[in-house]
Amino acid sequence: MKALLIVDVQNDFLPGGNLAVPQGDEVIPEINALQPRFDLVVATQDWHPQGHQSFASAHPGKDPFEVVDLHGLEQVLWPDHCVQGSQGADFASALEKNRIAAIFRKGMHPEVDSYSGFFDNGKKYVTGLASYLREMKVTEVYVCGLAADYCVYYTAKDARNSGFETYYLTDATRCISRDTYEKAISDLQQIGVHLITTDEL
Ligand code: VGL
Ligand code: ZN
């Protein structure tokens, strides 16, 4: 079984959103075209409580994109984004949702960020995604969505480390920063994640 994992295609990550990924909207038609080619389609949704500790606004005197230590982990401070129940947290309206079988939310713990769809950044809590995929007899996971250098990267890494044959769809994702993207890609290559474009499918 092959699963398509759509990461965080939410309004706040699109142009005009609170944590806009440049050209983030361009992934939507790609992802819509991909969905019918998979046995199973699963989505993740960044879903933070108000005042989440990953928000710069929760750290007086700090600005977005500064890096702090949060309970022993390096934490990039973000603009407020994907607040539970807000319009920014909704899936993009142009995203085809009818085929999505399950949605895994992440980032709910007020003190810990969660880039990956599998675990929080401290690897203390699981979302249940790995068990779900195993239960569904999935062996191959194809990852796409936003952002290439954060949530798509960490989700692909954890998919691979959880034992799934993992494919990172390079043209169905966009990055926040070129530097972090390049590091992410070389790390994924080293751990055996396949980097492919949708036309290689
Ligand atoms: C993301 C930063 C903070 C992402 C989520 O979806 O890539 N990035 N929260
Ligand atoms: Zn977030």
UniProtKB/TrEMBL annotation:
<dbReference type="InterPro" id="IPR036380">
    <property type="entry name" value="Isochorismatase-like_sf"/>
</dbReference>
<keyword id="KW-0378">Hydrolase</keyword>
<comment type="similarity">
    <text>Belongs to the isochorismatase family.</text>
</comment>
<dbReference type="GO" id="GO:0008936">
    <property type="term" value="F:nicotinamidase activity"/>
</dbReference>
<dbReference type="GO" id="GO:0019363">
    <property type="term" value="P:pyridine nucleotide biosynthetic process"/>
</dbReference>
<dbReference type="GO" id="GO:0046872">
    <property type="term" value="F:metal ion binding"/>
</dbReference>
<dbReference type="InterPro" id="IPR052347">
    <property type="entry name" value="Isochorismatase_Nicotinamidase"/>
</dbReference>
<feature type="domain" description="Isochorismatase-like">
    <location>
        <begin position="3"/>
        <end position="200"/>
    </location>
</feature>
<dbReference type="InterPro" id="IPR000868">
    <property type="entry name" value="Isochorismatase-like_dom"/>
</dbReference>
<keyword id="KW-0662">Pyridine nucleotide biosynthesis</keyword>
<protein>
    <recommendedName>
        <fullName>Nicotinamidase</fullName>
        <ecNumber>3.5.1.19</ecNumber>
    </recommendedName>
</protein>
<comment type="pathway">
    <text>Cofactor biosynthesis; nicotinate biosynthesis; nicotinate from nicotinamide: step 1/1.</text>
</comment>
<dbReference type="Pfam" id="PF00857">
    <property type="entry name" value="Isochorismatase"/>
</dbReference>
<keyword id="KW-0479">Metal-binding</keyword>
